Amino acid sequence: MPPLAALERFFERLFERPSARLFRARLQPVQLQRRIERAMEAERLATADRTLVPNRFVVHLHPDDLAAFGEMTTSLASELADGALVFARSRHYTLVDRPRVDILGDATVDRTDIRVTARFADPIGGADRRDPALSGTGPGHADGAAAMGDGPAGGHTDTMVFTIPRPSAPQARLRVMAPDGTQLDRDFDGSTLTIGRAGDNDLVLGDSRVSRHHARLTGRRGTLVYSDLGSTNGSRVNGVVVAELVLGAGDRIELGDSVIIVEVAGDGG
After folding, report:
1. Which ranges of the chain would DSSP assign to H, the alpha helix?
2. How far apart are CA 67 and CA 73, in angstroms?
3. Measured between alpha carbons, how far is 43 from 118 in angstroms, rounded to an integer?
4. Tell me: the pLDDT tens digits for 120-135?
5. Which residue, of 65, 90, 123, 236, is most buried by count of CB atoms within 10 Å of its CB?
6. pTM above 0.70, yes or no
7. Residues 6+ apart with CB under 8 A from 258
């Protein structure tokens, strides 16, 4: 979670929740909207030319707080989905599909608290967005169709979501340079490749400064994503310390005294 978002969360829990408990104040829709926006910001993924953000959100509320919304739960979910779309567009973020929101009762959530989980989901292939089946079966599920500007004839207004084609899995060749100067090439097929000192990794590095399970490469929505797994000595890409980053051809990953250089091997087709 970014430092600013963490700070906002701290003060929110410090001031809002105790006062809400004291006066039994019911949750307001704007509070749910702000939590969704923060979840979107926290899970965003920057690439060279765009910033991808989640398009599926689940809002967890205490059952009593959920019941307080009564019959407006379904319309609230729709409004929250629309609000997520507007928020993404205002910041020029990219969505691969219309936002959708579920509101669920969860007894593990404290009264007046809000927990939001966000994830990326591919569009539903071949589905008509006006099909009622896409609105879900639960009382608290809705997508952002209203904000999309679907007209009677099926056209779209200028509020249409940013759309990108679904790419095939990335393929790359990794040039691995060990501390003793030896090199080897390893093909990456776009699935998942774990990196570390332990023998159960897909790519084993004989480097004492590399953690047993140091990092992971994953093909995600047509990009090659490097994720540090909480390693002791951390990871650097092109000299900059990173936790997670979308990689491109020529990027230089430094793990301990080992180096991995990303080379393009194909277009994934």
Report:
1. 3-11, 17-23, 29-42, 63-69, 73-90
2. 9
3. 7
4. 887 644 444 433 323 3
5. 65
6. no
7. 176, 177, 178, 179, 205, 207, 210
